[in-house]
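Following the same procedure, backbone shapes were mapped to integers, as reproduced here:
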Amino acid sequence: MEHAPLIDPFARPITYLRVSVTDRCDFRCTYCMAEHMQFLPKKELLSLEELDRLCSAFVGLGVKKLRITGGEPLVRRDILTFFRRISRHLDSGALDELTLTTNGSQLARFADDLAALGMRRINVSLDTLKPKKFAAITRWGRLDQVLEGIAAAKRAGLRVKINTVALKGFNEDELFDLIAWCEDEGHDLTFIEVMPMGDMGEELRLDQYWPLSDMRKAMAERFTLLETEETTGGPARYVRLQETGQRIGFITPLTHNFCESCNRVRVTCTGELFMCLGQEDVADLRAPLRASADDTALIEAIRAAIARKPRGHDFDYSRTGVAGQMSRHMSHTGG
């Protein structure tokens, strides 16, 4: 059922929803998770049916782009059932885009099915092209499995955007290798600035902070960077490399360069709606979902939350809860 669209207090239509379908992952990336994670009890997670209801409510309220994230979304049991169900909104034209952010480990299994149900592009997190370094930073991951998955996605006709977290002392020396590899493979590439904070223990420290301004300077020594107003609806800002024609994105979570036009909200796998990742304000959508089979209360809760969406984020490093949210979510789920 169609409802009046969601408009926030600053006259911005909310058209882009990011939904986490699981907190679980088959990797343990050092900047994202502890090696021995305590995951949520299953009853706290939204069921696939509840996720469908929630996403469908947002689509009815004018959301046109839906990005599915995790954890690693493709490790959620029966996740293809959810994708097939939600793809009805693509078929009807209510939803313009259904997309996914993934670590690539399961893509060889799922790429053909995802393409068949109408998915057109995906984001794959990949921080290095060197197998030993990949094993070190993901702890449990195998690079060949991810590259095989990316190749499967390409064969299936999915556009792949590579998301790379910029880590000083880790992948600085691969900057031009990553650019060249993406040019050869036909993938877009976006770099994400790591959050300079240590909430994941000893491994994330200020000495890993590689400002994207420094990266751009290094790029500019080899390429001509052409500023562009292009956008894919997410927080990335893009340049074109004149010499190759490639599009390179930059996501800098600490800056306000994407706040003014923010059309995005995020829902966690437990049904918490974050209107802004740089704010602690959160709305519980699980309670209205579970209280009634009717969506009236759910839609009221969504509207009430969007009425509190701030103009932009503010960061206070004493608020480690927000720091952790930003660190985990921005590090590998860009635009």
Summary: Confidence is low (pLDDT under 50) at residues 198-202, 316-333. DSSP finds eleven helices and twelve strands in the chain. The longest strand covers residues 159-166. The first helix runs from residue 48 to 60.
